[in-house]
Amino acid sequence: MTSSSSLAVMPSITSAIERHVLKVSPDTSVATVVYQMSAAEGEGCSLSQDDSDSRKRISCAVVVENETVVGICTERDIVRLTATKLSLLRSLSKIPVSQIMTRPVKTLEESSLQDIFAVLFLFRRYRIRHLPIVNAQQQIIGMVTPSSIRAVLRPANLLKMRRVADVMSKGVIQAPTTARIIELAKKMADHRVSCVVIVEPSVSEEAGGPVNRPVGIVTERDIVQFQTLELNLQSVTAGEVMSAPLFLLSPQDSLWSAHEAMQARRVRRLVVSWNWGKGLGIVTQTSLLRVFDPIEMCGIIDSLQSTVQQLQIEQSSPAETENPIGGLLGAAIEKIAIAQTQSQLTDQQKQQLQQATQLIEQVNSTCALPVYE
Quick check: pTM over 0.85? Predict the structure, then answer.
């Protein structure tokens, strides 16, 4: 077996703290916040998906008073205001950010930032995508987001073993190309989603009839930028401003493929399509982090068990494959190493981890193949 020194090493969660955040006072106008969040360059709460690009997307503003965090304004807050007030940027100049910011804000002291599991738990429990990190004096020192976590965690083996279908959301909100932007903002606000997929009717012989074919997407960030451009949101249609053409994933694609596609296109979500357009899904950067959920940490055991049985059948003809289990064993060891850093494992989970270790030993001794390719 592989020594403990060769196990996957979990990067420090503190490296996922984005130290540069957009800070504003409570009396800052919403228009000013929108302008700063729409900036093409600058430093903000959300890291660019392309690590080679120095530009950083600004997806939130932290509202600070007397050096203490009192609120947070995100793209979702701007969309909600747009949907309810029907405002253009010139009227937003009269609204202080304190009127629309989310409060109270869930924060975490840097000294309490122990591991990724604690952060993911807070994301899930409070349904948030931005976690301000503060010092002992409750002063903002940085921000952790799904994007910043994904920038420091590159678990290739784990992502290669999981399919898009495992984590995608199927409740996709759709709209036709003729829908007005204000209608899309209302859909996002009502359904608490970050995007609307734009579709148009089509006839597919393979599908046996009419389908709604995905042709574009409009996101929360787009709504913020439309405000900056002072577009007439009550007359501009989705077809005029949507991001197109779409890069479509298949449910059978690996999460690693989704990860790479997001990085290459510098986006935070991708549309999934199957059955010739009859089925639609969404996979986001937050979805990718589900592979680290402690509840799912032992999910690889079942696949290992079946793989062991299959390999025992196929081991008589090893020439047919090129180390078919190297990646699998590497993923198993990586997952177990990550799981063992969680201090609050149940007895059942500890037992499952031990079973996983035994399975790896069985595969390794049976097939006499290296753990890592």
Answer: no
